[in-house]
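Hello everyone,

My group is preparing for a crystallization screen and wants a predicted model to guide construct design. The compound we'll soak is pyridoxal-5'-phosphate. Before spending weeks at the bench, it would help to have a computed complex in hand. I've included the protein sequence and the ligand's SMILES below. Output in structure-token form would be ideal because that's what our pipeline reads.
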Amino acid sequence: MDELIFEQSVPGRCGVAFPPCDAPERPLEQLVPSAALRQQPPRLPEVAEFDVIRHYTRLSQRNFAVDTHFYPLGSCTMKYNPKLNDRIAAWSRFAWLHPSQPASQTQGLLQMLYELEQLLCGITGMAAFTLQPAAGAQGELTGLKIIRAYHRAKRQSRPVILIPDSAHGTNPASAALSGFRVVELASGPDGLIDLGELKRHLSNEVAALMLTNPNTLGLFERNISAITHLCHEYGALVYLDGANMNALLGIVKPAEMGVDLLQLNLHKTFSTPHGGGGPGAGPVGVIAALADFLPVPRVRKVGARFRWDARGRRSIGRVHAFYGNVGVLLRAYVYIRTLGREGLERTSRAAIINANYLKAKFSRLVPIPFGDHCLHEFVASLKPLKASGVTAWDVAKRLLDYGYYAPTVYFPLVVEEAVMVEPTETESKSTLDAFVEAMARIVEEAREHPEWLKLAPQRLPTHRVDEVKAAREPNLRWQPDAKSPAFHDAPSLRA
Ligand SMILES: *Cc1c(COP(=O)(O)O)cnc(C)c1O
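Reply:
Good plan to model first. Here are the tokens for the complex, ready for your pipeline.
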């Protein structure tokens, strides 16, 4: 059954039954200004509850998810997260709190927020955090506004942000949106920041260096102390895109690397099922010298009580309604408290071991251009397959046929035909081995039957779509494609 929900509509069918009204009825026209009243009822499908449940459950089963498939989407950290954390976040005592309730009624929640800030300070070595930003990218924007406010308070005009060419696209976007001029740093031959290149670009025009560590190639910036020292000599701040913090937990604190401010992606590192656009949380941590610029309100502890403090003469102001995505914050709090210091360190070490294991296996199949020890992810190049006309795109689509969500492709831009793999700490060796075997078969197929890869995916409800057209003119009515050739089966992988 592939009808749209609208096609399942039957006039008069209803999902809910209200009891008869027991209060005096008044016409809508008396309650709502006529300009705001609809002339026509909205076009909504008339369906029963089970129609809705079956329709959307069926659709969800056509999808890939961490709960159903290995999801090695590099950069995004799609790890399996304990369901317990979701259960606690959905607990009515938290979920039903209203953000306008007075602090006297929400002491437990305020305590959780306060303690989460302390925990994040402990993990990163920062002096203070704001929990308001709703995503990594919004954290970046918040951080850049703080950088701007800091230099402005010192009466300095510093219009430039330096960003390495391997950076995530949100970095230059956030910097540009904050009114800075972005200057790109070319990576050195080892994929790391080149100290000479950095020196050439540093001046008293530079507000900050924005870097990612481990960087988007999964490599640790070995010269990080020299890099941050150099920036500070020029009066520039160092902003860390902390989206890759899941490689560093319990091993190194960004503050000890000389970082002045950073954002964490709680939805990546600290347990929140994400993908499909959210919700997330991108708290920003700063050193003591920047704490006054953080958004307000902040939670303060006065004696044994917690309260909101909206003061802050130098604050950049609010960046989110109320206090941020509290449900995501709560998951992170439970995750951190459950694992503890040692548990967090073990997750990072396991993420690093898994990635290096996969990388070693991959390196027998395809080149790994920046082949040093990686941290939590690595980037392979499928350039050699181009000889038979096969691209990273084709391989990604073929992996779907083998039951794996496709890794990130064509990012970072410094690797040709890039495939970026992040296994995360939650996968078993047998899953990783099966994934390598699928990859080995696809590399073989690329040589022997490149046309199979051009047709992939074949086993999914929909085949290769024109991605631009699919976004601009979506056709939601799936039809089995009679013209499409049969799936070129590979022998069962687990036989
Ligand atoms: C995911 C990611 C971001 C952006 O985070 P969002 O929460 O998606 O806004 C920024 N930088 C890096 C390195 C990332 O992996």
